[in-house]
Fold:
Amino acid sequence: MDIRSLNARIEAESSFITDLVTGMNRIIVGQNHLVKSLLIGLLADGHVLLEGVPGLAKTLAIKTLAQLIDAKFGRVQFTPDLLPADVIGTLIYSQKEESFRVKKGPVFANFLLADEINRAPAKVQSALLEAMQERQVTIGDDTFDLPKPFLVLATQNPIEQEGTYELPEAQVDRFMLKVIVDYPTLEEEKRIVRAHIDGSFVDPLPVTSTSSIVKARELVKLIYVDERIGQYVADLVFATRFPEQYKLGEMKNYISFGGSPRASINLALAARAHAMIERRGYVVPEDVRAVAPDVLRHRIGLTYEAEADGVKADDVVREVLNRVEVP
Structure:
């Protein structure tokens, strides 16, 4: 398929994106980056980790998206006493049938909200690993496929440290995006207060279906990625591993490890989804740069020296984007 006909097909088949954004904006005031990030994860088949203080509509945004798509929604409130079986399900013995039967957990949904995922220990967090990577769950001797689409949307609170457990690197790496959710602007805050006073919020109605999302994902896979864009993606990730090769020698002492190959894959996939949202059949460098902070920030390990100097992962990503040559 040539680019011109692909652009025309995307224009014809992407009207649901506008409907989703409009529906989200009726419920979520501001938070445009959050809304776009959720759509990127949805179109690119990637899980999303949302980090922000309580009350910033993280949970509401996820629930609203599921309602707009008329998808099955599952929610797990992660707590320190949670068990893996509470997430994926377990085997229950039936005295009547004199055999074990499978009781499926809330993971068997199109959208799984893992609320405050860092409040549960690593054993429970890791119960999601197979589901996130393989889109399947093993209970006892049986393996069950998860519905399509399947998306884990997790939230975590960055402020409270007591009673929380940092996500293992293997778990964090399976999230395509880590999105930092910030406070609304003053004008947005006034609109939020007024809407709650007036009671003008309405329940969202479905505007598309899960089958449309699965079909759109196949269209995203057709979006053209030039070799120079592929080189740019690889250079960005390699700059986090070997900064001195990209004139970033001052960052070498701040980085303990850089992005994995999964970072490169997810960067390209997310850039494709961003191009789809912009109604383009091809990826441009601006697509890559737009998604790079969310794709890379949780895949860069920082040293104690970086912590002492107040250097954050976002600072490293910013320098990488500024120094690596754009095609």
